[in-house]
User: What shape does this take?
Amino acid sequence: MNISKDLKELIDANVISTEAADKIDSYYKSKESTSANKLFIVFGVLGALLVGLGVILILAHNWDNLSKIVKTTLAFIPLIIGQLLCLFTLLKKNESVTWRESSSVFLFFSVGASISLISQIYNIPGDIASFTITWMLLCLPLVYLMKSSVTSLLYIVGITFYAGKVGYWSYPKIESYTYWLLLLLIVPHYYLLIKNKPKSNSLIFHNWFIPLSILSGLGTIANNFEKLMFVAYLCLLGIFYLIGNSNFFNGQKLRNNSFLILGSLGTIGILLSLSFSWYWDELLNNEFIFSNINDFIEIITVIILFSTAIVLLMKQFKKEHLKQTTLIEFVFLIFTISFLIGLKSSMPIILMNLVVFTIGILTIRKGEQKNHLGILNYGLIIITALVICRFFDTDLSFVLRGLLFISVGAGFFITNYWMLKKRNRNEK
Assistant: This one.
């Protein structure tokens, strides 16, 4: 579309003034400039990655034919080039986001390549966990010196992999406390993004990467009382949901609100899992015996997360944000009480089913009140998921199960048809 030509026609037709046309023209030019800058950043980062990959492939093909001195020299060359690029960027191109992101990403991978090559050349012993943590710590200054959000995201991926390696895939299991310290080191950068770039794509990506990393890392804390970690997870998901309901995310698109999405989907997923008897049967027969300090880690984690969730919930109440509750905000509290009851009774199974069903109904009601088909259908999906769970968990005949599914399907159709009719009436 030719904006300038259209604006000229509108001026000639006395539809808009020349002044208004100039403002419109400036607006669209600024948008084009922003879009171009984003493309430059993307292609700059991709270019840095491809160059690095090309160098690695060339070296790998001829590696065995090279002497140790040549190998050592080649191992340091990408590192030196990356440092020179970053220095040039800081001195000459500091205002260019493209240069900052591209040079820092190139140096990030150069550091990893140099460490691995030197280790291979001189047969330095080590494992993938120590390699990863060394790599991430050496590259952390790049995040702050270069103000590089892409490097920050790569760093988060790296420390999450480290947490998984030591917490899930190592035998015997290694404590993952270092991961939480490494995660804290990226918080200042995240805070600066929230403060200075609240609408940026960089912040949106961090809003997804950080909570996903925390969710992955939380499981590594489990020691002897894995059942207790369900309380920790529901408290954490409750915190996410409450953060997603805060003023910061008001007016933002739902896909950008990772905290609300993860908090809601994660809570529903865990509740559906706990609507079966397996967890409560095991919990009823479980004995909590504290033999050493590591046994208290799960308890301390639960206390911290539960307290944080309570504080956020109280703040939300003060701001009157919970007038139209979906019950998800209170799940962590309900489940904590249910967990304590479940140590002596299997009654919480019924409560979990009731909670999921109630959340589904309240979500449908909320969708109807806001005239929002997405929210309404989400509530219907919750109830459908609960019905499917009970399909595999009851002694009902296949005829009755079939009728139940028909009823749910008809409910989908009727509810959506009614909402569309209501919308049409309101638009008239």
Observations:
- DSSP finds 17 helices and no strands in the chain.
- Residues 84 and 103 are 9 Å apart (CA to CA).
- The mean pLDDT is 82.
- The first helix runs from residue 3 to 12.
